Amino acid sequence: MAKIAVLGAGMVGGVIARDLARKQHITSVDINEAALARLAEKGINTHRLDSGDARALTAFVQPFDLVVCAVPGFMGYRILKTLIEAGKNVADISFFPEDALELDALAKRKGVTALVDIGVAPGMDNLILGYHDAHMKVTRFECLVGGLPKHPRPPFLYKAPFSPIDVIEEYIRPARLQRGGKPVTLPALTEREMVEFEGVGRLEAFNTDGLRSLLKTMAHIPDMTEKTLRYPGHVALIEALQQAGFFGEQPLDIGGSRVRPLEVAAKLLMDQWKLAPGEAELTVMRVTVEGVEHGKRLRHVWEVHDEYDAASGFSSMARTTGFTCAAAASLLLEGGFREPGVHPPERVGRHDSCFSFICDYLAARQVNYRHVVRAS
Length: 376
What we know:
Layout: E1 3-7, H1 11-20, E2 25-30, H2 33-40, E3 45-48, H3 54-61, E4 66-69, H4 73-85, E5 90-92, H5 104-110, E6 113-115, H6 124-133, E7 137-149, H7 164-172, E8 175-179, E9 182-186, E10 193-197, E11 201-207, H8 214-217, E12 223-230, H9 234-243, E13 252-254, E14 257-259, H10 261-273, E15 281-293, E16 296-307, H11 316-333, E17 341-343, H12 345-349, H13 352-363, E18 370-375
Parallel strand pairs: 1-2, 1-4, 2-3, 4-5, 5-6, 6-17, 7-12
Antiparallel strand pairs: 7-15, 8-9, 10-11, 11-12, 13-14, 15-16, 16-18
């Protein structure tokens, strides 16, 4: 059995730890004692540590064969750099705002393989694009993705599987797209359209900044877009809050205290958007890849519809994200991908064996991606 350290015992980190513990020796690491206690009850070894302490983290990970990083995004880049400097292979799902490829040269010098953004989106959408890019001349890529409550309630028709401030960040950060072979930046929430999903119905899709590494690694593809999915009506409420200044980041003087509207909004929305224990939710994604393959214009469409699993208590977002990261960790352990450096999923997906390994791993856990190919 390999020894794996899983940094982060939250919603996704906990799922990764429990999944990998089926076959490997797992130690879950977090500073939150309550989160560790929940995993200890499931028979997972735990260790309390501030992963932001580079010296302590470097010493702690030395005996481990692999590290999985599922920490909050604001500390992810710094921790990934520490792990690479410590010479540890990594599967990372921390979704930090910095460019992970800036650590590529360091990883190569250290002989480290780091798979980053290896979740659902970013993650599986990148993997799918990388797979097709290796087999065809891709001209268009689109990803539509969303995590939603199964039974939406007004007024927001939404529940967040993670912190509201992270959701709001999606709504206010400009969206970078690729149009006509050139990068284009548009406001988030723009270019709204209605789309149909079987088993869900009509959803509203809008621009968000989700392409990340694809803007560098797949810059040869003329058109690339990612859009977030919500129930119709949600975006109109978000725009009203935004126009009223609730998402402002400049402090305001209120009653002699300086407060940031964004922090107040996130605090107030926490109760409105928080998923109740056992509340049914779902994750849907549609990835479309168009181009020329064997002399024919084809459109490949991949879809997933995953729901909360009452038996395990795993949310769909934790399943689709965590199991993909666990698959990547297993791929590294089994030597299926050995290239030193920092690799986003699209580079992994170019290898048929790696793509099949991760798809099969997910299917074994009932996360099934349906693939349809048509003439375009």
